[in-house]
Amino acid sequence: MFKIARHPQFTIPVTILTPTDGGHREETLSVTYRAIPSSEQDKFNLGNGDGTRDFLRAVVVNLDDLQDESGQTVKFSKDLLEQLIDLPWVRLGLSTPYFHAVNKVKTGN
Asked: Is the whole-model pTM more than 0.70?
């Protein structure tokens, strides 16, 4: 049976490819997203940084498994989200999994 959720949310593991000398480092965190209807999604220009930041502000509810440079646990906050989504690799790393999750099509007969 299909359940209709008034405010659907989902939490998934997300891998961010952080640039490093000689390549990238894979870093994983847990992201809780708010699923939005297409009519709301269409209002965001995902072709530029500002539009993608606005989109992520609308859909990212929480980030878990965060640490600072010294390895200390960091709590999620809106200010932290602003710092993170200013980085292009983080914007890509957070937006792509959202679309994969909400657009996944079940294969087979």
From this structure: yes
